[in-house]
Design goal:
The complex is a heterotrimer.
Chain A lengths: L1 E6 L1 E3 L22 E3 L1 H17 L2 E7 L4 H11 L3 E5 L9 H13 L5 E5 L10 H9 L3 E11 L2 E7 L4 E8 L2 E5 L11 H7 L5 E3 L18 E7 L8 E2 L4 H14 L5
Parallel strand pairs in A: 1-4, 1-6, 4-5, 5-11, 6-10, 7-10
Antiparallel strand pairs in A: 2-3, 7-8, 8-9
Helix pairs in contact in A: 2-5, 3-4
Chain B lengths: L6 H17 L2 H10 L4 H9 L18 H14 L1 H8 L5 H7 L2 H13 L4 E4 L15 E5 L2 E12 L6 E7 L11 E7 L5 E5 L11 E12 L3 E2 L5 H37 L1 E2 L2 E2 L4 H29 L5 H26 L10 H10 L7 H13 L4
Parallel strand pairs in B: 1-4
Antiparallel strand pairs in B: 2-3, 3-7, 4-5, 5-8, 6-7, 9-10
Helix pairs in contact in B: 1-4, 3-5, 4-5, 4-8, 6-8, 8-9, 8-10, 8-11, 9-10, 10-11, 10-12
Chain C lengths: L2 E5 L2 E2 L2 E2 L1 H17 L2 E8 L3 H7 L5 E6 L8 H15 L3 E6 L3 H12 L3 E11 L2 E8 L4 E7 L6 E6 L14 E4 L11 E8 L12 E5 L9 H11 L2 E4 L1 H5 L20 E5 L5 H7 L4 E6 L6 H4 L2 E4 L2 H17 L1
Parallel strand pairs in C: 1-4, 1-6, 4-5, 5-11, 6-10, 7-10, 13-14, 13-15, 15-16, 16-17
Antiparallel strand pairs in C: 2-3, 7-8, 8-9
Helix pairs in contact in C: 3-4, 5-9
Amino acid sequence: MNIIVCIKRVPDTADADIFIDKSGKDIEKSGLAFDLNEWDSYAIEEAIQLKEKLGGTVTVLSAGGEDSNESLRKCLAMGADDAFRLTDPAFAGADGFATARILAEAIRKRPFDLILTGTQAEDDGYGQVGVVMAEMLGVPHVSIVNRIEVQEKKIKAHRELEGGLEEVVEVDLPALLTIQTGINEPRYVSIMGIRKVAKKEIKAFGASDLNLKPEEVGLSGSDIQLDKVFLPLVGEGAEMLEGKPEEIAQKVFDILRDKGGVA
Amino acid sequence: MDFELTQEQKDIQKAAREFIQGEYDKEKILEWELTHTFPKEVWKKACKLGFIGIHFPEEYGGQGYGITENILVVEEFCRKDSGVGIAVTLADFSSEVILRFGTQEQKKKYLIPVTRGEFISGGAYTEPDHGSDITLMATTAIKQGDSFVINGTKTFITNGTLADFFIVLCQTDPHAKPPYRGQCTIIVEKGAKGLEATEITAKMGIRMTSTAELSFSDVRVPLTNLLGEENKGFYQVLEFFDESRVEIAAQALGIAQGAFDRALDYARQREQFGKKLVDFQITQHKLADMATKIETARLLTYKAAWNYDQKRIDPKLTSMAKMFAGKVAVEVADEAIQIFGGYGYITEYEVERFYRDAKITEIYEGTKEIQKNTIASALIGKLK
Amino acid sequence: MKEIIVVAEHRRGELRDVTWEMLSRGRELSEGLGGELSVALLGKDVKNLAEALKPKANRVLLIEDNRLEFYNSETYEKVLTQLITERKPMLTMIGHTATGMDFAPSLAAHLKIPLATDCIGIDAKDETFALTRQIYGGKINAAVSFLKKGPQYMVTLRAGAFPVIEKEPLSGEIVSVPSLLTDEGLARRFLEYMEAAAGEVDITQADILIAIGRGIKDAENIPLVKELADSMGGVLACSRPVVDKKWLPKGCQVGTSGKTVKPKIYVAIGISGAFQHVAGMKGAGTIIAINKDPKAPIFGVAQYGIVADLFKIVPVIKEKIKQLKKS
């Protein structure tokens, strides 16, 4: 099975203090640690597990600057066979749609049985790139997948719905799946893996390599643009309930009754 | 001059960081600390991923990197957790003596299992009456037929109750003049008849690492367990220290950085008198001093490692790195507790443990005073 | 006429809350634009749902077909392509849910209609729409606009992000639209629904959630909190560590990689308030946090905080509720 995985390197903002940068359109990224997007780490792990079970190859690609090599190398060190990067100044400002287009064009001429992407990215959170790519490539898709079973020329996939419900579907190959966190346990990068990829070249391709016109990529090829960013309103902080446990319990009860928490 | 790590080194650093971050579980760690438990699972996983013995050649199970790569791993592990970091990265303690001086058979027999997480190694140098001064050993190894018969006591032995084998520094020629010309390093395996290990349970820090007293009572090992040439033990151990002291410097560096990370994080969140701690100039200055010390220790440690990997031995540089990084670790951890205030004194907030663990880096593998002797003798030109 | 179409989301015979939320916001928008609000309902034997939708829209576009019994991205895409091509709505609203995320992106790409996903705010502005999205896991909000000028737009709206505002009922007419689906084979086929765990409830639908975190320490302590939840008629939820340790099923998880919830009351017990968790629950009406760490970030989002050992305070609160409810 030949699998293509699309990944993204994102800043880790979960535990960091973040500030809006001078442009007012993004956050200050210097000083932030970057890593492979969490969802993508599950996608690459799933691809490698499938390869280990069924044979074939895993190719990783990412649309991004040279920094993205770090995440691509990580995927190679985890066990991917090949990696390449899509880079062009003209790609700047791409939204989910424009990103999907360059990824789809890069994949179009390659043979594949399966494309995996993360369900969404930690940074812009569009949650659309994979599904749009499937449309552009004319292959069926299944999103938010948390379990895969490969069958003869098709895949049985579980989609994670709300409230602990799963939808089981089958999809003919070739297909695209967007992978949900928790589907597997992404492996650590081993030193053996790092050694293996140390000398591996990661090729970069630009808009002209993909036969894309400038107006089809980057901001000009996007549906939406980000005008400014701002901090969400934050609460004033909690009113602390103090006293003996009995008194606290009474206060809690009063609040609950007030807010309709106890009938 | 180039102060950048190579791409590969950065990848190794990141892999080490992600691994130890993934394994970090505060509650478990506090439990291990309390019960003096070696983090066995973390160690096994670290071996499987190639972190332990990263600096051994491939033919002996290693990854063929230098000690620069090794100390990057040590720093990251200790940064995330001083106790786990030290315990895990010392699991191959002293096996470098075999790597540098052992026969091919010895290397295959002992080093490969060390990298696979099957063996833990130990080095038995210190004696109750001979700590920093190893020029004369009371532990003797006398040839009898095809065996050495070893008698004596070693103390403060890292991995003492865990190790599968020890490299033991013995006096083989009690009449040698000076006595250190009559010493050998000999491999003694766990379970050898007459070898007893007694855990030293009450200690200031490194509680996830075993520290024990070893007693040798007519312990017989084959003559083939001799490491390298006869009567060169003292020199081998000194040469090993040139390498291992850089590793201890990296432990100290990691501990300092880990304590600093926690202090900075806390100072950003904690409010007093209506302001965050970081908004007080006193805190800012503390943080600036801590960060500067850490960066200085890092430069010295990395340089010492790099120098060793250039195949140059410079005991002055390694001693400087070890002495300075150890000192920085203690000072930074101390200041970290101060920034935490009362919380810093409480185990759950970790910095007090970092402080206790930091202190050992000023003591083991040569106290800071011994490092100063080494530095001074190199400066003054006195022969070793 | 400017038409807004809301694509109704339903599962197992019930309309999902996001449908009402979209209809509420859609009505405000369409009234502001002087247009009309339609709701598209795709399914098999869903006339009862169509009836329920009538008061909330000017028109219910009912597409019934046996092949629409279960949601499938391919059938949805075909039917909605036809519908949108014919009606040319100015705006199509879809829930940013497991369902909406699965078909809206490909539908928009297929129709070449610009799409903005996961919006938490939408306003009409100069023949187009101004949107608010959250980026960096909710740490930052972004004002977003459509770059391509319509005349048609599509958005997916975050579930729970828009309040349902009660208004004078509309008298929507039900318009049956033929589906034009054929028996042509599909590349993707629905097989079945599977419950992740028995007896589990949809926490996104609960009014009262009692959530536990790492502070619960062990699975055997969960009944203690479950009793409190029962006394309040609430549902048990949790933060990620509890699911990772397999103490509660994944469906109970609140947060970035779990569910986004908006209950009336949310009691966070032994949850530090890591941002990933907060991202999923900060929209709750009232948040009460119990944590022994006075500097736990959860107190920054809670309206009420209790610094206490949960094992000591939870039983007292539970008893108090039981006792006071009786009286």
